[in-house]
Design brief:
The complex is a heterodimer of chains A (52) and B (253). By secondary structure, chain A is mainly α. In chain A, 73% of the residues lie in helices and 0% in strands. In chain B, a hairpin with a 2-residue loop joins strand 1 and strand 2. Chain B is globular. The chains are: A mainly alpha (52), B mainly alpha (253). At the A-B interface, helix 2 of A face helix 1, helix 2, helix 3 and helix 7 of B.
Chain lengths: 52, 253
Amino acid sequence: MYWGSLSEFLAMGGYGLYVWTSFVVTALCMGWEVLALWRRRAAAVAENRGLL
Amino acid sequence: MNFMGLNWSKYSAPQAFYPLAGSMIPWFAAVATLAITVGLYIGLLVAPTDFQQGDSYRIIFVHVPAAWMSMFLYVIMAVWAGLGLGLKARLSFMMSQAIAPTGAMFTFLALLTGAMWGKPTWGSWWVWDARLTSELILLFQYAGVMLLRTSIDDLRRADRASGVFVLVGVVNVPIIYFSVRWWNTLHQGASVSMTAAPKMAAMMLTAMLLMTFGFWMYSIAVVLARARCVILEREQLPSWSKPSSMPEVAEAR
């Protein structure tokens, strides 16, 4: 483990804003994509219920 | 087409591909989750700081994988579009269609995380440098192909038009990749290449490659899931259960 404390980890040597924005937005985008696909699939399955 | 004792051409039919894709998604998703978890652990918790850039360098663990995927997915999308145009196989166009949103998302993320890295290291969110500009053009290409597809009602015409658009645009990918060598850019040169030893510490490189592998497996899982949605949406037949008039039937065709 590189970090001494949690606050040190969150501060990222003063670059916390840039580092955490990058990681959080990436995670949000990927999570949103999975969720959107889940909903798109549910809608498509409902539309085709008679055929599947 | 026989290879490894399987008749692969069978899977060019959407109906055969649909269950195959469905059975592969959980595996790719599991491997992606594992690789990204370990990559994040090494990259954020174990790897030491950079002696020049401090901890801002940790953005590399999302920036480089996203940027690589943005270019790689475009090439794969173009390969599927080319196969579709050459073989007139609709599943190929469906795959091409399924890749575009994920590619666009990774292009956006590469640009955004790049801005987040540019501000502390260059002093600017954005510069009109060859690497950044060509990557921005890639985002417009992804947007363009998605808009072109939705603007044409006839599916076969939409397939062909967007396929040609994707194929023409593939010239931008080598421009992005080699831009740091061809022009004098603010963006740094490649840290990892096939021919030279990586210019990074082993632990940082491990984390970056794990994240890239994880993003790659994530992309496969997501694209397969979207391809299944596209198959369901495109292959649906006009419903026989509800009474339909002649114009309705004509429209459904």
